[in-house]
Amino acid sequence: MIYTVSILLSLVGYFIIGNLAGRRVQHLDDYLVAGRNAPTFLILGTLVASYLSTSAFLGETGFAYQGYPFVMLIFAALSTSGCLLGALVFGRYLRRSKALTVPEYFGKRFNSRQVQRIAGLTTVIGLGAYLLGVMQGAGIMFQELTGLPYWVGLVLVWLTYTGFILYSGSPGVMLTDTIMFVIFSLAALGGSLYIINDLGGWPGAVSGLLDQTDKPGIALWHGVLEGEGSTFSSPGEALIWGVTLGLVWAAVLAASPWQSSRYLMARNEHVVMRSAMLTAVALAVFYALMMMTGAALNLYNPDLEGERAMIWAAMNILPPWLGIVIITGVFAAGLSSCSTFLSIIGFSISNDILPASSSDAAAMRASRLAILGAGLIALILALFQPPAVMAVVWFAATLFASSWGPVALMSVWSKTITAAAAGWGLIVGFVGNLILSLMIQAEWITLPVYLHPVLISTVAALIAIVIVSRLTRVSEEERRYREFLHHDDTHGLPSWANGSRLVALCTMLSGIGVGVFLWRQYADTLASLASRYDIASSDVTGAYVLAVGCGGMLFMAGAVGFWVVRRHKSGQPS
Predict the structure, then answer these.
(1) Do 143 and 153 contact (CB within 8 A), yes or no?
(2) Helix (H) and strand (E) counts in the chain
(3) Is the pLDDT assigned to residue 442 strictly greater than 80?
C-alpha cells in the first residue's frame, strides 16, 4: 500500500510542478524552447532524464541481471562519450542556429521545407515507438507495485505527463525532468550502495557471483557464455556487441532529437558544453553502480524475470524508506522520458509537418492539439501492444543513429552535402534500418552480431548521400548558412570559458576516479580470486582493460572538451 501511495503522490506532485512552470509561457519560444535561457543544471537534468528511462532501470539493469553487467559497461564507456563529442561537433552548432526544433534546423541548413518535413516524420514515427516502450515500462511498474490492472497505470501516467505538457510545454518538461533526475540519481546511488554493502562490498559481490552456478561467468568481463539463456557464444562476440552498440548509442546521444533538442533551450554554447560533460560523468557513474547491482541481485534470487529485478529488489531487499525512493525514482525516469518524447512529437507535428501557423497563439494551439492527438494514439497502442521495454526502446533509438547521425554530422562539417542528399540520407537510413529490424524480428533473416541492422543502414545512408550529392549542387543559400554556423559567438566568452574549463577538468578527474574504482574494486578482486576459482589469465587481463577503458573514455572526453574551450578562448575559429 505504501508504494501505491508514493507513486500516486509523485504523479500529483509532477502534475502540479509542471503546470506551475507553465505560468511563464507567453510566446512560442517559451513554449517550444523555454525561451533559450536554461542554465547548466537544468540542461543537465533534462539530458540525463531524457536518456535514463525505464529502459535503463528495468531493461538494461535486467540485462546485467541476466548475466552481462560488464558487457554493459563496455557499451556505456563508448555511448556516454557521445554526450560530449556530440555537443562539440553538432550540439553547439544546433544551438547557434536558433531553430525551434531539430527538424527545423535541417530545414534552415538545407534551405528546404521538404527536408524539414522528412526529419519531422522520422521524429514522429521513431519517437512514437520509443514513447510506447517507456509507457509500457511505467505500466509494468504500476502493476507490480499496486496489483491493479496494467491499463490503469498506463492511463494515470498518460494523464499526468500529458496534462502538464499541454499547458507548460518545454519549461514544464525541463523543470520536472530536473526534479526527476535528482530523485532517481539518489535512488540509484542509495540502492546500489545498500545492496553492494549488504553483500560485503564489491569483493563480496564478485566472490558471491563466482560461487553461484546458475549463471556461470556473470562476474567475468564477457558475461555468461554457456547455457540455454546465454546471449553470446564467445568473448569476442560479447566484445563486438558492446563496442558496436556503444558506438551506435554514442551517435544516438549526439544527434537524436530527444537529446540534441535539449541544447536548443540552453542559455549559450558554453552551457551546451558544460551540461554535456556533466551528463557524461553522471551516466558513467550510473552505469558503474547499477550494472554491478543488477548482477548482484542474483545472489538474492536467481530466478527473476530480468526487467522486474529492480522492482523486486526495492520491495524485498531494501528498507521501506529506500525502497520508496527507488520506486519513485524509477517511475520518475519513465515519466520524464514520456513527457520529453511526447512534447517533441507534438512540436514536430505542428512546427515541421503541418503548414506554418499565422501567429504564436495559433502555433501553440496547433502544438497542444498535436500533443493531445499523438498522446492518445500512443496510449491506445500501449494498451494493446505486448510489453517489451528494452527491445522496443533500443529498436526505436537505433533508427535515429542510422538516419540522423550521418546527416547531422555532415550538415556541419561537409561542404558538399546537398538538400536532396540530406533528404535521401534520412529516408534510406531510417527505412533501411526499419525493414532489416522487422525482418529479423519476423525471423526471415539472421545477421551475425558484427552486422547489426544499424551498421548496414548507416553505410547505405552514407552511400545515398554521396551519390545524390554528386548528382546535385549545393545552393548559395546552403553554402552561406553553413558558413554562418562556423562563425563563433564570442559574447561573454571569457567568464563562460573559465567555467567550462573547470567542468572539463572535473570530467577528466571523474574519468580517473571511475577507472581507479573499477581497477581496485573489480579487477584487483578478480585477480586475487583467480587461483581459487580457476579464472583464466585472459579474463583477469580483460578486467583490467575494462577498468582502463571505462575511465579512459571519460578522461578523453573531458580532455577534448578542455581543448575545444581553450581554442575558443584563444579566438581560433571552430
Answers:
(1) yes
(2) 27, 0
(3) no
Instruction: Place 155 in a pLDDT band, splitting at 50, 70 and 90.
Output: confident
Helix (H, G, I), strand (E, B) or coil at 230: coil
Query: Coil, helix or strand for 237?
Result: helix
Quick check: 430 and 399 in contact, CB under 8 A? yes
* Strands (E) located in 432-551: none
Residues 201-259 have pLDDT tens digits of 989 999 999 998 888 889 999 988 877 667 888 899 999 989 988 888 888 888 888 88
Give 38's strand partners: 266
Q: What is the pLDDT of residue 401?
A: 87
Question: Does residue 573 carry a pLDDT above 60?
Answer: no
Contacts of 563 (CB under 8 A, 6+ apart): none
Phi, psi of 242 (to 5 degrees): -60, -45
d(CA 117, CA 348): 9
Cell numbers linked to 211: 560461487
Residue 570 predicted with pLDDT over 70: no
Per-residue exposure over 123-159, b if at least 16 CB sit within 10 Å of its own CB, e if not: bbebbbbbbbbbbbbbbbbbbbbbeeebeebbbbbbe
Distances (CA, A) of 192 to 102, 185, 266, 317, 370: 36, 11, 32, 11, 40
Q: What is the pLDDT of residue 54?
A: 65
**What are the residues facing 266 on neighbouring strands?**
38
pTM here is 0.86
For 445, counting Cβ atoms within 10 Å of its Cβ (0-12 exposed, 13-18 middle, 19+ buried), the class is exposed
Whether 15 contacts 7, CB under 8 Å: no
Cell (9 digits) for 275: 551540461
CA distance 32 to 41: 19
Residue 540's alpha-carbon distances to 276, 489, 518, 527, 534, in angstroms, are: 33, 49, 13, 6, 11
Q: What is the rounded distance in angstroms from the CA atom of residue 249 to the CA atom of residue 492?
A: 33
On whether the CB atoms of residues 554 and 80 are closer than 8 A, the answer is yes
The model's confidence at residue 14, banded by pLDDT at 50, 70 and 90, is: confident
Instruction: State the average pLDDT for the chain.
Output: 84
Alpha-carbon distance 383 to 343, whole Å? 20
**Distance between CA atoms of 421 and 461, rounded to whole angstroms?**
9
Taking the C-alpha atoms of residue 375 and residue 23, their distance in angstroms, rounded to an integer, is 22
